[in-house]
TrEMBL record:
Organism, scientific name: Armillaria gallica (Bulbous honey fungus)
Domain DDE-1: 1-88
Name of the protein: DDE-1 domain-containing protein
Molecular-function annotations in GO: nucleic acid binding
Pfam families documented for this protein: DDE_1
Amino acid sequence: DGHNSHCTYRFCLYTEAAMIIILCLVAHTTHWAQPLDVGCFRPLGSAWKKEVMAASRQFIRITKYNLLELYDQARKRAFLPDTVTSAFRHTGIWP
């Protein structure tokens, strides 16, 4: 969204040292151009719903102790390398 707090000088130094390429999106285009929103977070929501439903069918109560484990399972199903690559391709950005 172009906010200056997202890319500080310290952050830029860190990414340069770690050989991470920063990709900045054009202002006011994130509603259609954010690759992970377009292609990954929607499947994550569906995967999370499936995890919650599966847990409830087994009478497993979701607590602060097992929430991250369930979320991790959903994340692993939603954020596959092919899914992420496809999301970038779909928005016209190639990683």
